[in-house]
Amino acid sequence: MRNIISTDERGLISMANLKEKEIVFFGGKGGVGKTTCSSAYSLYLSRKGYKTLVLSTDPAHSLGQIFQVDLGAEPRMLEKNLYGIEIDPEKESRKYINSIKEQMKGSFSPIIISQIQQQLDAAYHSPGAEEAAIFDKFIEVIDMVGGEYERVVFDTAPTGHTLRLLSLPELMGGWLQGMIQRRKNINDMMKMASVADKSLAERVKEDPVLDILNRRKESFEKARTFIIDDKRAGFVFVVNAQRLPILETDKAINYLERNGVHVEGVIVNRVMPENIDSDFWRKRKEVEDKYMEEIQERFGDRILYRIPLMEHDISGYESIDSVARIFE
Ligand SMILES: Nc1ncnc2c1ncn2[C@@H]1O[C@H](COP(=O)(O)OP(=O)(O)O)[C@@H](O)[C@H]1O
Ligand SMILES: [Mg+2]
Question: Which residue's CA is the closest to the ligand 1 atom numbered 16?
Answer without folding.
Answer: 33
